[in-house]
Amino acid sequence: MTTFRGPLLVAVSGPDGAGKSSLVGRLAALLRERGVTVVSTHCYGCFLCRRFPVPPRVRETGEPGGDEWARRATDPERRGPRLRRAHAFLDAGELAARIAGARLLARARAHGGPAVVMTDRGPLDGLVKFDLPASSGAASAFRRIADGYGLTLLLETGPVTLRGRGWEETAGPPTAWWARYRSWSRRVPTIARLDGERAPSLVAGVALERILDEVRERERAASVPERDTDGHRPHVVVSIYDDADNPAYRGGGALVVGKVARRLAEDFRVTVVTAGRHGGSEDRNGIRYVRVPVGRAGPRAGQLLFLAALPFVARRIRHDLWLESFTPPFSTSFLPLTTGAPVVGIDQGRSAEALWRRYHLPFFLVERLGLRCYRHIVALNAADGSAIRRLSPRADVQVIPNGVEQRRLDESLLGAGQFILFLGRIDTWVKGLDLLLDAYDRARPPLDLLLAGSGTPAEERRLAALVAAHTGGPRPRIHWVGYADEERKRQLLRDSAFLVMPSRHETFGLVALEGMSYGKPVLHFDLPALRWMRDGGDVAVPPFDVAAFGARMTELATDTALRRRLGHRAGIAARHYTWDEMTGRYLALSHRLLDSPAAVRRPRRRGSSWQTTR
């Protein structure tokens, strides 16, 4: 069982007028929506400050300089050093008392669950307000209080904005105060700086992610995996139809599951259930792989058989937690109805709506019904996360994006490239290859187009016919190079000018993130699921507007300086998506579910295990 080391203490700091109180209100509401107990306390200084308000700076009439500002609350010549230190001790004492009361209230309300105490002023603000010597006792008191905070959000607002809010009339020049904040913030732990010039909703979104990351990290640190009755570590099973050895798919989902499985294996026993032409199991890198023999039925029928077989497999393999990567066309397999252990649905292949548009078959009806069976779902992007919350209001939906290998960005190669690249699974309708070839044929950009990827035999024949229909003239300018292994893929990414992603449907677009890590711009249709790339070196055009897609393709192919600027932004944006952080979130989620009281009570162990004892 997970035991929390008290509520997480979060301070929102910054000058008065920076919007601290409104940000605390927004964050409290967003955290409560995610099931976190929140207690907010307002700390506007000690009771003397509230009873006898004194501006921290006041202009003295007749003072030399005229426009200068003189200290009143913190100047030893005007208040006296002893009185100033006593005032600081009083302020720190009342802050500590308020925090202690809020923590007790949070513990009582949380009943052992995650809790957050938020203050719209913290020790950093006290240090800045009194500006005492770092060696003084009062400064040490504020720093001891700061050590108890898990996170301090410093809301950075420019001097111009503060002046526009009338701040200078009561507080003095903002630049002087910001100099103090910068100086004291180096002495306070766990500082997270927020850009207060952005829209309040964006600031709240960034702050929310930082707080949730800290909550998950505390859960992970506090959790101790319980041993099962056989003396082994808890057993986690990850299921996915796709596999790196499946020639018809070999998509990004298999790569993600491999990364997640290796991270989970640090703390748990891990089994990966996937499809194959032959049944059986094998151990690889400390992970057990079990293959369901449905591959001979073909890719479409194989997916249906895999979905049908998964509940029976779950009743044969003993497990404490199951992570299910959704499989088309129905996505869900109603797996939570067949096991008492927690099940986490991973939305890497929820495509029922796209298949409805393509085939006019109501797969989405089964998908919507199945989603309501899940209490824990992981989405790869915010748009899909919002859609799943509407379809399954009772589910705990977390957004965990994919990651990418971090590499050094070579500034000298930005903007360079010999061709336009499409890289991905060959599926003409879903990946929009027909739209891409039409746009290329109309616009005729000066760079050749390379298509790299493989798919089912039927899809490859369809693409070959499309390429032949769009290839004319003495020298072909559209080249399909087939499947690219890892080395070939890296070479294509390095040598390309930019990537194109004309998909009609995506859940994340891992290839786009890989291209961004090489400093390559990405041209795509403006799908909600791809808006995580916004302002990250991407170029978005209205969905399925072939003419606009071709025009932007020509613009990127002819403008080296534009590619250089966009490529630099893409490389910087890719640094925020690391495999370590992404897999760490899966690990924290697994610990939370396995160490909760419900996870101890509910697991059922039916039948004999398919794996050998390790």
Automatic annotation (TrEMBL):
Keyword annotations from UniProtKB, A to Z: Glycosyltransferase, Transferase
InterPro entries: Glyco_trans_4-like_N, P-loop_NTPase
Keyword Glycosyltransferase: yes
PANTHER family tied to this protein: GLYCOSYLTRANSFERASE (PTHR12526)
Position of the signal peptide: none
Lineage, opening ranks: Bacteria, Bacillati, Actinomycetota, Actinomycetes, Kitasatosporales
One GO MF term: glycosyltransferase activity
Domain annotation Glycosyltransferase subfamily 4-like N-terminal: ranges: 251-405
Keyword Transferase: yes
Positions of region (Disordered): 59-80
Pfam families in the record: Glyco_trans_1_4, Glyco_transf_4
Gene3D superfamilies noted in UniProt: Glycogen Phosphorylase B (3.40.50.2000), P-loop containing nucleotide triphosphate hydrolases (3.40.50.300)
Protein name: D-inositol 3-phosphate glycosyltransferase
